[in-house]
Amino acid sequence: MKAPILKKLSKAEGTVSGEVLSAQLGVSRVSVWKHIQQLQALGYEITSSARGYRLKNSPDVPYSWEFPGRESRIIYHEKLTSTMDAAKDLARKGCPDFTTVVAGRQTSGRGRLQREWHSAKGGLYFTVVLRPDLPPVLSFRVSFLASLTLARTLNEMFGLDVRVKWPNDLLVDERKLCGLLSELEAEADRVAFINVGIGINVNNDPSAIEPPATSLKALLGRRVAVKDILARYLDAFEQRMQTSALDRVIEEWKAYTVTLNRDVRVVTTRDVFTGKAVDVDDNGALVLQCADGSLQKILYGDCFHQTR
User: What CATH code is assigned to 64-254?
Assistant: First the structure.
């Protein structure tokens, strides 16, 4: 009921009476009043008078009812240990495709190779549960599409030049804006689910913990609505997942990358590789040209661009 009440109030030019809301929504005036009180407690600035209710301001919080058509698939927590862990539990219990777990902040967020992902208030942290009809060997394409779609979405929304770094970080002027992490579980020769975790520096300040990092607020000089970013991204990503040919995603991704044709250092769980990044192959592997001229393919690791 919160979503239709907010929709009515947001479209109204002035005050809307409880009687009108009750009649239009098919519930009692007492029910309307109770939901208004709940919304006020959650930070919605709704004024009450003898004439009715008026919405003056909404909090920038990605509550489920802020996403029409997705209400049952958005799970928001003010604080969570990890959206990846919560999404994994939901996925194993059979939650639907594109269920999204969002946290205002995480206490144990993680990145690649089990590194800590600092998740201060003001950022956007979420994990999307995906159920593509794919064999596990092709699951990497989903991660590339996720990062490519996010880069395009942020560019379109804010006029920035967001680029992708192998395997799936997003950078602006070589400064990290966003990180992605994917995990999957498979049944026989098919993917059971792929969870894509995303952390975007929006209104938080990551520079004290990770000096090379940046945020949308720092880049734009103003605060940005996290719920608008999430809505735009989920719509774009779901559309791409439904309509795109994943066999072309690597070529699309390469048009947005800043990793190729430069010297890099790649850290894996066992080794450290250095060389010139010359390509990303059809399996998503980074192809390095080593000092002796040989080629080394790396499927997974942390990539560090060397100073130009």
Answer: 3.30.930.10
> What pLDDT, in 10s, does the model give residues 173-196?
999 999 999 999 998 889 999 999
198, burial (CB in 10 Å: exposed 0-12, middle 13-18, buried 19+): buried
In the three-class reduction of DSSP (H, G, I as helix; E, B as strand; rest coil), residue 281 is classed as: coil
pLDDT, tens only, 236-268:
999 999 987 788 999 999 999 999 999 999 999
For residues 79 and 103, is the Cβ–Cβ distance under 8 A? yes
Q: What CATH number belongs to 262-305?
A: 2.30.30.100
Q: In 183-297, where does DSSP find H-type helix?
A: 216-220, 226-243, 249-254
- Torsions phi, psi for 266 (to 5 deg): -120, 125
Beta bridge partners of 179: 199
**What is this structure's pTM?**
0.90
Q: Does domain 2-57 sit in CATH 1.10.10.10?
A: yes
